[in-house]
Write a structure and sequence with these properties.
The structure is a homotrimer. By secondary structure, the first copy, chain A, is an alpha/beta fold. Helices cover 37% and strands 13% of the residues of chain A. The first copy, chain A, has two domains: 7-126 and 273-289, 3-Layer(aba) Sandwich (Rossmann fold); 128-268, 3-Layer(aba) Sandwich (Rossmann fold). In chain A, strand 1, helix 2 and strand 2 form a beta-alpha-beta unit. In chain A, 52% of the residues are buried. Chains in contact: A-B, A-C, B-C.
């Protein structure tokens, strides 16, 4: 694999191969890659989970990690992303994990650099490593994707997680329903209130209300969102015995999910974070092995 | 040892055991711990010395260190400290060094996370690793704490160093006197001017005037503070032959201490910094060995 | 070598010895230094290239690198550079790479610290590691410096690159001509327009127009600068067959250099970046070996 950019560019075989490899890492822990590799994580948008997860994955593979502070680089002097990437290529970096606010930022890079690019999130585009960790978590639970019913609830239009997951889950045989306020459906088909059928899904995946993107323009309060679209304790009680709750985090306690559900028996939220390290190890390994 | 939070939770045996181990590191240098450990330093308040000291200690023990920029994390998206810590737990971090502006920030974490917490300073609460390095420096000099006379001069009420040290030094048999302006004594008993007896102490420990906490509200100038409460060259001349001068740094030259005394023969200020690495190695080792 | 501060302090023998060692690294790649060394990169001004280049060089030598965020350190509490450096000395750091806005910032440090200082750029003073990588790139191309004609075009007065290079190149036998607007010549002799002879040089080295230093005060537009002083496609066509184009980067596309020339056959811009890693490895090696 040369780059890891979008779930759309992944074949089903590639997905399963990465999941198998991630499973291996989850069982047997760290494994230093043969050969010396240098990577860097270029996060032009704030992140804890994704960046930290990559940082841990990189160290478990024994990689050298070059620190990059986006707020203190030549980007401040007006340097383009292309020129920044070419700089990393010139100084001998093998792979870059990039999160950037421009959807499809990587299009201008591909074919023009020998550095491998791993997409850590592109604007309102995709978040393919998150998708892979969600797949890992679902497969770990149910052993398959075929015939699973999955509700994804939240800001569908702006969520790269929703888009990446809808793509992969549908391809793998699951049935995905979007739930959201009308204003947030974008170009997608969505329902706008919870019903019994949805609560009987196998997976309820909640998305973060991105207050910072909507500030001042929200037509509902946090409480109203929680009542209408959030996973309340009431609703969680109606879920199937073996159903699970997922959330990419960071979460707003009491908004998209009731505080008491975050660490409940059905919740896989912290398992998702743990699994994120394994899938990122698998992706880095596939990319770096592909460079020899 | 599971966590390292406050000198109050340390028994005398634990203190001496850590000091002995630190002495060993001071003599024999680096030592890679058996086993792979991942740690991170979460400093939500500015720091050079404490953070750098931990960073060096961690590398001398061969640990993997995950970088954390508090100004660029999901804390910006309103994430609580608890959720941030649970994230680090999920991705496989073994120990976190945390400095946070809330006194006792760790209370809500203990018992709810399997990550080991090392307190790098909690608001106006404690700074227990600083206390341990001060103890190390004093023991290195005098071989004992019994019967030593120690003056701690400065902003007692706001100083976590004063509190941690008063606790430990008294327990170990030293006699501690606080010197400060009336406004800064807090709930402590303190004297408000230098006298001959105090200048005949074995240790004069000066605290930094925290201009950034008092800005605009100080009832005295820097010069007036220096004259009344600072260690002037004049006063230093009256100190005992074998007495030492300590300061946790960063120091304000010419305020709490005369510029000429910082690197004088009696000063142990830079030795304290050096010793900080050894005691932090000892603490990290005790914590991480305790995880097996 | 104890410190690496200015090209003026380097003998011709030292320059050639470092270039030879860098050439060795360019051929044979990474090489872990015997012994454990701890270094830190103190960049008080923004940088991508120089800082990243050092970070890569340090890892290729197997050094431990202590992260330093200038915006989040005790410098915020008013600590002097001297006190920051003494802190790093106390905690056991062997060498510091420092970029600072004060010209000659290192003068107050030399002789007062046992830490080795490597100058990563001092205000409008020098940028000696850049100079060394430029020398490396030129020697790689022409095998010698004797008799080469070199044009350096741009903001001569404010450029530390121009100053460092003029010094070394002249000493090594090359003939250097400065080209710039009258306002930017400082104390140097310079010509103010391109002529045929200059276009027949062996090396055309362009400097970045530092918009952030001149903002609002420039008497010409970007387009006018490009037309009068920049390397246009037109001018590049008149260059000698074997001549090369250099630029320390980051570059302003379409200002000091036409966009189409950045990656043209004559351009050595990205080779310069690559070579930067090798010369910095050579410098670090010379400094650290000198500490035993």
């Amino acid at each position: 694999m040369e780059h890891f950019l979008s779930t759309k560019k992944l074949s089903t075989e590639e997905i399963f191969s990465l999941l198998d490899r991630a499973e291996n890492f989850s069982k047997y822990g760290s494994r230093e890659l043969p050969g010396k590799y240098i990577v860097s994580n270029l996060f032009f948008e704030p992140s804890t989970r994704t960046k930290m997860s990559f940082e841990v994955a990189e160290r478990k593979l024994g990689l050298d990690v070059i620190p990059f502070e986006s707020g203190f680089s030549s980007a401040l002097k007006g340097e383009t992303l292309y020129d920044t990437v070419k700089t990393f290529e010139a100084i001998g970096v093998d792979a870059l994990v990039i999160r950037h606010s421009d959807e499809g930022y990587y299009e201008e890079l591909i074919g023009r650099t020998s550095v491998s690019i791993i997409n850590g999130g592109d604007g309102s585009g995709q978040h393919p490593t998150q998708s892979l960790l969600d797949l890992f978590t679902i497969r770990e639970e149910f052993g398959t994707f075929e015939g699973l019913n999955i509700v994804i609830a939240g800001d569908i239009a702006h969520s790269r997680v929703a888009k990446s997951n809808a793509d992969t889950l549908t391809r793998l045989g699951a049935h995905v329903t979007f739930l959201c306020p009308k204003e947030w459906k974008g170009n997608f088909e969505a329902v706008h209130e919870w019903n019994v059928e949805m609560l009987q899904s196998d997976v309820v995946m909640l998305l973060r209300v991105q207050h910072e993107r909507h500030d001042g323009k929200l037509t509902f309060t946090k409480e109203a969102y929680h009542d209408q679209y959030g996973l309340t304790v009431e609703r969680a009680k109606k879920m199937k015995e073996n159903a699970i709750i997922m959330h990419p985090a960071p979460f707003n306690r009491g908004v998209e999910i009731d505080e008491d559900l975050i660490e409940c028996r059905k919740s896989r939220i912290f398992n998702q974070m743990e699994n994120g390290v394994y899938v990122r190890m698998a992706i880095l390994e596939a990319i770096l092995n592909g460079r020899n």
